[in-house]
Design goal:
Radius of gyration: 11 Å
Helix content: 10-25%
Largest sheet: 6 strands, antiparallel
Distance between the termini: 9 Å
Strand content: 35-45%
Strand order of the largest sheet: 1-6-2-3-4-5
Structural class: mainly beta
Number of strands: 6
Shape: globular
Order of helices and strands: EEHEEEHE
Length: 75
C-alpha cells in the first residue's frame, strides 16, 4: 500500500520509498531518511502535528507538511 509518511498512524512500520524534492530533502537524508530505511511511527502531538518517528536508533519529530514529501510502503 503506497502512502506518504503524513498518512501513517501510530504503531505502523513503514519503509521509505522516495523523498520528493523539497527545501529539506538533503537535510532529511543526512539524518538517515533514505530510501529503503525502516521507520516506526510512534505518536503525534495532541493536535496531530508534529509526528514522532523512530528511525535507526533515534526518535525524530517531524511536521506533517514535511512528512507529506516522503513516500512510504507499509511493511
Amino acid at each position: 500500500m503506497k502512502l506518504t509518511l503524513k498518512d501513517t498512524t501510530p504503531g505502523m512500520t513503514v519503509r521509505i520509498d522516495e523523498l520528493q524534492e523539497s527545501p529539506l530533502k538533503q537535510r532529511l537524508m543526512t539524518m538517515g531518511l533514505i530510501p529503503g530505511t525502516k521507520v516506526e511511527i510512534l505518536n503525534s502531538a495532541p493536535m496531530g502535528d508534529p509526528i514522532a518517528i523512530r528511525i535507526r536508533s533515534y526518535n525524530l519529530a517531524m511536521r506533517k507538511d514535511d512528512a507529506a514529501n516522503i513516500k512510504v510502503t507499509v511493511i
